[in-house]
Amino acid sequence: MSTDSTKRNITVGVFVLLGIIIFIAGIFVLGGQQKRFTKSIKIIAVFNDVGGLKAGNNVWFSGVKIGTVKRISFYGTAQVEVDMNIEESSQQFIRKDANATISSDGLIGNKIVVITGGTTSHPEVEDGDRLKTVAALSSDQILETLQENNNNLLRVTKDFKELVGNLRKGKGTVGAVLTDSIVADNFKRAMRNLERASDNTVNLTGSVSKFASRLNTPGSLANQLVTDTTVFRSLKRSATRFESAMTSADQSINTLSRTAENVNKASEKLNNTNSPLGVLLTDGETANKLRTTINNLSTGTELLNEDLKAAQNNFLLRGFFKKKAKAEEKARADSLKAVQQQLPDSTASKP
């Protein structure tokens, strides 16, 4: 065999060997991607629309690829059943109440199945379990939403353009402020007034702060009124006494009111010509008769005294009056003697 043919055979052998190695490596790579060489379980999900999902697409759980789509077939009247191969090692993390939805790998990437949710109160999935599905937004719905947002943005841009045009033309309050110098001056003046009012508010706040600090100064009357319970109780007692005094004053006023009312009633009775006092106070003739009667009584009293004196000098009654005078004189002498007898006894009893 010639040297050229030997080199040719060696070259062909090398290329064949490289092809075999690449083929075997591709098988392992594709098998690894398709999870052909790992233990797996099958779970099922039924969708109304798979949105272009194909067999061999990936299955994700919490952002991690855990399996592939094995088979897609129609189910019922218009639904699609998707069989998925899931790694047995991830079985413990997927619960029977988990949800499956159709998503995409990126904005325009391949369709994938995403498993979400699930709580530890439910057991883990088993081979042949069927998961609940959640409808996802399709690309058409997303495009419709984007189109609607674009239309809204176009309307907002148009409105903003009209607003800027009105401002430039001096329409509205803001436009007048921007274009009319008088309105701008008035606006500046109002802002200066507002600034002065703000300064006054700051000063007032400072004054209130100083007053509050004085209230917190120990030993001051305000601080004692706020913090000292003794002063507070004293003020409370004083207020109670003042209230009692006001109550007493109210009672006195009520008494005076009743007294004035009684006086008014008495004056009404005195002014009444049907009562005796009213007649005496108002009727002059009756007053003159009463005056005459009193004078007559006085005169009769004087005459009676004279008659009594004359009776004492009468010989028939003279003895009676003498006996009476002697008895009175004897009684005075006896009482004087008793007093004189008591005087030595009281003097002797003194030390």
Describe the structure.
The protein is of the alpha/beta class. Among the domains are: 41-142, no CATH class; 156-216, no CATH class; 228-270; 275-309. It contains nine helices and seven strands; from the N terminus they run αβββββββαααααααα. It has helices spanning 3-33, 139-168, 172-179, 181-215, 221-227, 229-270, 276-282, 284-312, 318-348, and strands at 40-47, 58-61, 64-75, 79-87, 99-104, 111-116, 130-133. It has a seven-stranded mixed β-barrel with strand order 1-4-3-2-6-5-7. Strand 3 (64-75) and strand 4 form a beta hairpin. Helix 3 (172-179) crosses helix 4 (181-215) and helix 7 (276-282) packs across helix 8 (284-312). The longest helix has 42 residues, at 229-270. The protein is elongated and about 215 Å long. The termini are far apart. The model is unreliable at 346-351 (pLDDT under 50).
Name some characteristics of this structure.
351 residues, alpha/beta, elongated, 7-stranded mixed β-barrel
User: What overall geometry do the principal axes of the alpha carbons give?
Assistant: elongated
Record field, number of beta strands: 7
Overall mean pLDDT stands at 77
Unreliable spans = 346-351
Please tell me how large the radius of gyration is.
65 Å
How is the biggest beta sheet arranged? 7 strands, mixed, barrel
- What is the helical fraction, as a range of percent? 55-70%
Taken in chain order, the helices and strands follow as: HEEEEEEEHHHHHHHH
Class based on secondary structure composition and strand pairing: alpha/beta
Question: CA-to-CA gap between the ends?
Answer: 183 Å
- Total of DSSP H or I helical runs spanning 4+ residues: 9
Q: What is the topology, as strand order, of the major beta sheet?
A: 1-4-3-2-6-5-7
- Beta percentage is 5-15%
